[in-house]
Amino acid sequence: MRKIILSLLFVLSAVLVIACSADGANDEPNDSPDDDSTFVEYGVAGTIEEIESGENQEGIRIHVVGNENNGATYDNAWVTVSEDTVVYANEETNYEVLKTGDYVNVFFTGDVAESYPVQATARQINIIED
């Protein structure tokens, strides 16, 4: 008799564990974001203070300085800009339109050197008109 009761308790426990673990296992939340959507944060936003170009260097480097609480990750950065960088000034253009005094939002690609100011490569630059 004792073996039967223990066997029934074991089976009942197993059924209960399986039922509880299966409940909601395949449910997806209704408010989950799209798998394709991602939050994009710009690396630095501010005014171009300086532009460097070298004879042996492809592209340019810009020094961007902004406020600490402007929504960007960093407030000060040296940014490498190349032919691969997408630049927008009301429409897509190239990096040759960048000038000292422009206010820009810069999106980084690749690694960021965590010096101060940080050093990174631009994937995209948006020139913000007044």
Report on this model:
This protein has 130 residues and is α+β, with helices and mostly antiparallel strands. The chain has a domain at 44-128: OB fold (Dihydrolipoamide Acetyltransferase, E2P), CATH 2.40.50. It has one helix spanning 2-22, and strands at 44-52, 60-65, 76-81, 86-88, 92-93, 103-113, 118-128. It has a 5-stranded mixed barrel. It is rod-shaped, with a radius of gyration of 27 Å. The termini are far apart.
Q: For the record, what CATH class of the domain at 44-128 applies?
A: Mainly Beta
| Spatial strand order of the main sheet | 1-2-3-7-6
The number of helical elements comes to 1
Q: Which spans have pLDDT < 50 for at least 5 consecutive residues?
A: 29-34
Q: What shape does the CA trace take?
A: rod-shaped
How helix-rich are the residues, as a percent range?
A: 10-25%
Give the structural class: alpha+beta
Largest beta-sheet details: 5 strands, mixed, barrel
CATH architecture of the domain at 44-128: Beta Barrel
How much of the residues is beta strand, in percent?
35-45%
Order of helices and strands: HEEEEEEE
